[in-house]
Automatic annotation (TrEMBL), chains A, B:
Species whose genome carries this gene: Leptospira ilyithenensis
An MF annotation (GO) of this entry: DNA-binding transcription factor activity
Classification via CDD domains: HTH_ARSR
SUPFAM superfamilies: Winged helix' DNA-binding domain
SMART domains to which the protein is assigned, alphabetical: HTH_ARSR
NCBIfam families: HTH_metalloreg
Gene3D superfamilies per the UniProt record, alphabetical: Winged helix-like DNA-binding domain superfamily/Winged helix DNA-binding domain
Protein name in UniProt: ArsR family transcriptional regulator
Length: 112, 112
């Protein structure tokens, strides 16, 4: 599915940055105002806003305005997509290793 | 842990490319010779080798020579590191959503 693949590219690209991962860690615990988020990072506000914009673009976070304050919250859907890809790969190689284990076990039993 | 964080940066960066993900998908099923891997991708060999080198640098794959053939295989350890980070985030927000659910349920029961 080319669309899923493009989405997964963007999610992994977003997660490759430690600031953006730290934002996700914070938002996992609940929504936060942009000011509250920004003050945790020793970074100029425009650079920090750039990170948030990358995250919003690939739909890992969403924001809305409440009065004069912009609130960010996590959108788990895209994270799940990337996690699903990883779990799928793991299940394939774990299955293969189990088959190898079984084969070696049978070989050992034959030797007895 | 700065070391883990640097490793996770590199793993997510590696996974952000569809060719490199396709190589992992192939290697999940078992080791493969470089020639066999390369022929699945419509790409000049030097570019393809560059992808393999990125993957070997962040220890997602390893290679060894058997005669004149270089064989690549998957190293699951680094993938697990990145997967662990994702699962940790999910467990935090799922716990928070459950707490919210319980709170709303109690509120509803009080209203009855």
């Amino acid at each position: 599915m080319p669309n899923n693949s493009t989405a997964i590219n963007a999610v992994f690209h977003t997660l490759a940055d430690p600031t953006r991962r730290a934002v996700i860690e914070r938002l996992s615990e609940g929504p936060a105002a942009v000011g509250e988020l920004a003050k945790s990072f020793n970074m100029a506000l425009p650079s920090f806003m750039q990170h948030l914009s990358v995250m919003e673009e690939c739909m890992l976070v969403r924001s809305h305005k409440t009065g004069r304050v912009r609130i960010y919250h996590l959108v788990p859907k895209q994270l799940k997509l990337a996690e699903h890809w990883m779990i799928e790969q793991r299940s394939i190689w774990e299955k293969r290793l189990n088959q190898l284990d079984n084969y070696l076990l049978k070989l050992k039993e034959k030797e007895k």
